[in-house]
What we know:
It is a single chain. A hairpin with a 4-residue loop joins strand 4 and strand 5. Helix 8 crosses helix 9 and helix 11 runs parallel beside helix 13. The protein starts with 13 loop residues before the first helix and ends with a helix. It contains 18 helices and seven strands. The chain has a three-stranded mixed beta sheet. A two-stranded antiparallel sheet has the order 1-3. The chain is mainly α.
Amino acid sequence: MMSYFKMITVMLFALVFSSTNCLADAKNVSINNVDELWQGYIPGYLTKINPKDSMVLYSAQQALMVPVWASFRLQKTAWQKQITEGLSLIIDSTTSIEKLREKSHQGQIKLSPDLLDESKTGSGKRNIFPFEAKTSEVSKDDMIQFQFSYLLSYHARLLVQNGITDKQSKKYVEKTVHLLMTDMIHPYWTELPGRHWAVRYPNMKLKLQAKLSNPVPIELRARKYYRWIIDEELHFMAIASELRCLARYKKDLFTQKDIDILNDILAITQEIMSAKLEKGDGFLFDIGSVDDHPDYAHAGYSGKAYPTVKSPGKNVSWDISHSSRWPWWLASFRDAWPTNSAQYNQYDKLLDRLSIQFVLCIDSQLDNNGFPRVTNFFNGQNGWYRVGYQNRKNFGYAPFALSKTVALNGSWGTLADRNEGIKKFNKNVLRALESDKAQMKTKSPEYFSLSLLNAKLLNEVIR
Length: 463
């Protein structure tokens, strides 16, 4: 099974804090001043991100999306420069596979089998973020490469779209476009095998086309989740969307071949949204595709006692934690198109539908610490999730157990100007953090700092 499914993704931020050992003392920062919160957290955090630690890089994308978004919405040039500088240094840490193989042959490092196999990783000249595991083996992880690269593309697009033209920003944009087009978009779309549970596809394009095929190909019929559009693929499509938007402003950074391949990805993205999204006022994507996936084996059980017998749900949606990427993805899919074009307006309406769907998942009661409660699944079902995950005894997410992670993630808060229910959700999150009944400031000061900063930024941008 792919490493993507081995991640504890609902622990979106905790891994950052346990790995970086950084940041200013939260006790010395005023919780009422958003500028002080920013300066007390973001600069230190950016300098401590270790790009060789896969889970730190994975979590960094989640941690920085709201700050990047807010820095442009609030027109904070100094904040934008800090992020540009920090991300630029991380891009510089990428290494060519060729150089990694050379070091491996010299006995300096140990490479994972994938990196030694050109049929799986492509040209040795391609740059990647090399991850060093505890076993001292250097490896790659496509899911994490895509997730963090989405942040890089998002920030680059906003810099260009907002006319930021200082030397450092221009260099960052150029480096980002080169890295993502040359080392990611082209090879994965046309050359590198598309990872899958049961089938080895020649590339991602053919893998996605197979998942869209009707009738369903024989090799994908054994399990419903073989046809599941996973977030690794959606991150990739979102990167392409950001680059296509950027290309409208900086044509000189792209070849015609680049534009053609980005247009191709946008077309398949539209096909996927048309085929996989249920009709109606809400937002139910790929319903039922996860019904027989092991993570969802107890989705049909919502009791308090720990489940001992499998109880899969029917027509289950994504879990609400993974669904928290949708506010970002849909905005990227929209912004790939010219403002007020038919495609732009279509995706913008989907953002309205997304906000409606999220509000349906918000419980009428707050938890004991004042945080909003949300159902475990995005269609409003509230069964258990990931019971016995990674063979851990007595592990699993009981009903409402994903609530705090979702509340502190921040992505849903960006939709507050579309739905009063989300605006109320934002205010409840901020109120809970300021009262701090959960004693987060004492138990996890860095996590508290980020969560409070995000909540303040959301309420500052959308009042």
